[in-house]
Amino acid sequence: MKIIVCIKQVPERDAQVRIASSGKLIEESDLQFAMNESDAYALEEALQLKEKNGGEVVVLSAGPERAGTTIREALAKGADRAIQVESDSLNQLDALAVAQLLSAAAKQESPDLVLTGLQSDDLGYGQTGVIMAELMGIPHASLILNVEKTDTGITVKRELEEGWFQSIDLPLPAVLMIQSGGTKLRYATLMGIKKAKTKELRKISAADLGQSAAPAATLEKITQPQKQKSTQIIPGSPKEAAATLVEKLKFEVRVI
Amino acid sequence: MSLLSATLAEPQSFQTWEKLLLLSLILASAILFFRRFAPILDRILKSRRDPSFTLAPVGKRIWDFFWEVLCQAKVIRERPLPGLAHAFVFWGFCAFALVTLNHFAVGLGFGFLSPEGVFGRFYSYLAATFAAACAIGIFGLFVRRFFVRPRWLGQKVSCESGFIAALIFILMVTYLAAFAVKSASPAASALWWIHTLSILVFLPIIPHTKHLHLVLSPATIFLSRGGFSKIPPLVGDEDFGLVTGKDLTQLTSLQAYSCVECGRCTEHCPANNTGKELNPKEIILGLRSYLNDLGPQSEENIIGKYNSLTADFQCTTCGACEFQCPVGIEHLPIIIGLRRGAVNTGAWEDEHGAKLFLALERGSNALGMSTGERDKFIQKQAFPIFDGSQEYCLWLGCMGGYDPKGREIVADFARIMNYLGTSFGVLRKEKCTGDPVRRLGNDLLFQQLAESNLETLAQNKVKKIITICPHCVRTIQEDWKEFGAPPEIEHHSEFLARFADKLPKAGARTTLGAPSMAQSDRAIGGIPEAPSSRSGKETIVYHDPCYLGRYRNVYDEPRAVASLAGEVVEASRSHERSFCCGAGGGLVFLGEETGDRVSHTRVNELVATGASTIGTACPFCNTMFRDALAEKGDAAPQLLDIAQLTARNLPALDNKPDNQPRLSS
Question: Higher model confidence: residue B528 or residue B391?
Answer without folding.
Answer: B391
